[in-house]
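in:
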């Protein structure tokens, strides 16, 4: 929806367009109840007491930036469509599947890459700068923590902003690949549907038949986003590194994740074994609810910036 700046008084136009942008940013955020003051007090005390806080973030943190997630009730990808993300085995074995994936990703990239951090991302960055946050592990692949300036960060599932060659391992920026796509497909166009959590859009198979996918410019190998696809596993070196950072920490905060995927949930199990205090900020139930007494079911952007350090 576009606002006509000339048809409205300046202040009215600005206000209405800002409201439209805000509504678009929030359309993937699930409904939540009112803030429980007692839970907020508990969370404040939890953060205040921690001196080396370990944070694990998930898709619920980025929905407030306008990026949909998979599982949220009513607004997640699984609730809105019957589409499912590309499986790793399908991507590596099928050139047609890679063609379909990259065509959809090419169409969705301009919008997906334009998303910006929200107040929750900046709050966590501030916690790091003030010495409260020891390490942040994100399950998201949108690079919003990096855009916010986070330094003590592990992108557990990689980043869509990087591309890796499956043959030689060369890493290149996703923005550079976008230029190569455009050069190889000058007359190609398609009508795109909704954007998915990993940045691609929905296209019909017939729309991608003439789309050309470039090979690695170093060895001619197969290019893939440097992300962990469904059905793949997180690099063991990365997992061990995160466990080391967890061992250096004295408390764990979950921000915007249901922890349904084991790659993130494993660190909550390890934290529980170490008797570390755990708090969760997430709209809706999580897989680790039984591991904590502090559960705040509100938007991360509503509560994290309000924490006093």
């Amino acid at each position: 929806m576009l606002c006509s700046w000339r048809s409205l008084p300046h202040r009215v136009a600005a206000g209405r367009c800002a409201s439209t942008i805000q509504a678009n940013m929030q359309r993937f955020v699930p409904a939540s109840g009112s803030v429980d003051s007692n839970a907020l007090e508990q969370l404040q005390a939890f953060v205040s007491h921690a001196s080396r806080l370990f944070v694990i973030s998930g898709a619920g943190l980025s929905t407030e930036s306008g990026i949909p997630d998979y599982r949220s009730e009513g607004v997640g990808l699984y609730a809105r469509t019957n589409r499912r993300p590309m499986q790793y085995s399908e991507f590596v074995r099928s050139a047609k599947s890679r063609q379909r994936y990259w065509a959809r990703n090419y169409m969705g990239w301009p919008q997906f890459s334009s998303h910006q951090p929200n107040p929750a991302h900046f709050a966590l960055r501030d916690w790091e700068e003030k010495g409260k946050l020891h390490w942040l592990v994100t399950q998201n692949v949108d690079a919003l923590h990096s855009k916010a300036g986070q330094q003590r960060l592990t992108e557990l599932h990689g980043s869509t902003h990087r591309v890796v060659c499956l043959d030689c391992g060369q890493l290149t920026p996703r923005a550079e690949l976008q230029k190569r796509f455009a050069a190889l497909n000058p007359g190609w166009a398609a009508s795109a549907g909704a954007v998915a959590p990993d940045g691609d859009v929905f296209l019909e198979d017939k729309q991608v038949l003439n789309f050309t996918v470039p090979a690695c410019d170093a060895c001619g190998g197969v290019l893939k986003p440097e992300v962990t696809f469904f059905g793949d596993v997180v690099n063991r070196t990365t997992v061990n590194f995160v466990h080391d950072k967890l061992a250096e920490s004295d408390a764990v905060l979950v921000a915007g994740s249901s922890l349904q995927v084991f790659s993130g949930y494993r660190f909550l199990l390890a934290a529980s074994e170490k008797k570390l205090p755990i708090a969760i900020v997430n709209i809706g139930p999580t897989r680790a609810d039984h591991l904590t007494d502090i559960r705040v079911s509100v938007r991360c952007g509503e509560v994290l910036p309000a924490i006093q350090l």
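note: The two ends are 40 Å apart (CA to CA).
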